[in-house]
Specification:
Elements (H helix, E strand, L loop, with lengths): L2 H10 L9 H17 L19 H28 L17 H19 L9 H19 L1 H16 L16 H16 L1 H7 L6
Helix pairs in contact: 2-3, 3-4, 5-6, 5-7
């Protein structure tokens, strides 16, 4: 470890692992401040906001920086959808079907984890805790459990999925294909992740001596 690195560890107690661009936080903070000033008319500070020096103002800047933060998630979802729609996969000789864990599809869950982890390094959540979201995720998980464990429910749900497929919906949205991370699988793991992270009892249980 070099001398500068050792100094950082000695000062903070751990290496500096954050790779977040500080410029994004700085200018987003300035944009929020300018928006606040703009909505308090009559202050002398209003003359120094960016709208007086060009055509755009802080609102456009804030949207641009918010878009930067969201671009990774949107690109991940789009790639996942196109991979299933076009049956895109990496070649894997001699397997004619390509990789079992198709990177084009499975990157969706990896990027989701990356975004969650990035938010946690800032002491934030990727998605806020909402009662209706908790209820929706719990309902989805309950439906999945009934689908798997109750033959009558499973047969009916599979029939509905088959009919939707006949209507032209992409196969990876109406099936359970693991290679292309079919939509039911993706929604299930996302709902499970959100629910477990949102329930305070789960954290308390994980911090008990029995679980540590």
């Amino acid at each position: 470890m070099s001398a500068p690195e050792a100094s950082i560890v000695a000062t903070t107690g751990s290496p500096n692992v954050s790779r977040r661009d500080a410029r994004l936080d700085f200018f987003r903070g300035l944009a929020l401040l300018a928006i606040f000033i703009k909505h308090v008319p009559g202050t002398p500070y209003e003359e120094w906001t960016s709208r007086n020096f060009g055509f755009s103002d802080a609102a456009e800047a804030f949207f641009v920086m918010s878009g930067i933060a969201a671009a990774l998630a949107v690109g991940s979802a789009l790639l996942w959808f196109l991979a299933g729609l076009q049956r895109l996969n990496f070649p894997h000789y001699p397997n004619p079907d390509g990789w079992f864990f198709n990177p084009y599809a499975w990157q969706a869950v990896f990027v989701t984890g990356l975004l969650i982890g990035t938010a946690l390094t800032r002491g934030e959540r990727l998605l806020p805790i909402r009662r209706n979201w908790i209820a929706l995720c719990a309902a989805l998980l309950l439906l999945s459990l009934m689908w798997r464990q109750l033959p009558g429910v499973g047969a009916w749900c599979n029939s509905v999925m088959w009919q939707l497929g006949k209507l032209g919906l992409p196969f990876h949205t109406v099936g359970h294909n693991k290679t292309f991370l079919a939509l039911p699988r993706l929604l299930h793991v996302l709902a499970l992740t959100y629910l477990l992270s949102a329930l305070p009892g789960v954290r308390r249980l994980a911090e008990t001596r029995a679980c540590s």
